[in-house]
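COMPLEX REQUEST
Ligand: magnesium ion
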Amino acid sequence: SISRWMSRTWLRIAHRGASGRAPEHTRRAFELALAAGVDMIELDVQLSRDDELVVMHDLRLERTTTGQGLVREHDLSDLRRFDAGSWFSQELAGERVLSLSELIVLAAVEARLNVEIKSAPADWDVLARRLVLCLRAEGQLESTVISCFEPRALQAVRAQAAEAQLGLLWENDDCMEAWRWTDELRAVSIHPFWKLATHEFTRTAHMHRLQTLVWTVNDVRTMRKLLRRQVDGIISDFPERFCYVDRCGTDPTA
Ligand code: G3P
Ligand code: MG
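STATUS: Structure written out below.
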């Protein structure tokens, strides 16, 4: 896709792939996101028992797979046997849990990645090492934004790689704390819950040389409102709606 190379005014980002129309974090969800022409794909990662990087949101398997228990209690080869599509729809039964390397092969030529760390604190150091190793090996470390709600997990990544591009996820009202952390981490972006992204917020972010990437916005009118507040990117479960943002009168969610 040419979108990766064109300079656009704002980043179109798919949340867990096109997770509104396909089971989150599956091949189908990522293919639909690429078909929608996104600039970036957000995905969650955590470690398997054998310290592989697994693309999954919940720490437990039950909601999105046919497996049971913690992701961390299973080797990647076991996780691959579970069905990650049938919870969403029977037609998509057979979708599988993906590793980060598989996802990179599938998506990283056409879109940048935003890898969000979901692991528990005890795993942050190992995860940071594995993540930096994987992204470096695939030549994706400098194009990928690594994000987390936990600044100390990002510190573990920073300790591994001076060139890592870090984004701090934020959902609290106390934004002063956020700016302290982004300065200390030398972050490139702040990722607030969309309601926190006021004009004042984006102005302060820009003063700190941070991009503001908001989540999770599925309504086209809200996307337009946030762009008027100068956000730099929008993370959505329905990336196919992004094409309506710059058009008038064709808002499918109106
Ligand atoms: O990265 C944005 C968003 O994904 C954060 O929340 O729970 O959907 O991972 P969550
Ligand atoms: Mg996420």
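REMARKS: Strands lie at 11-15, 40-47, 53-55, 98-99, 112-117, 145-148, 165-170, 189-192, 211-214, 233-236. Residues 15, 42, 44, 57, 116, 147, 169, 191, 215-216, 235 surround SN-glycerol-3-phosphate (ligand 1) (CB under 6 Å).
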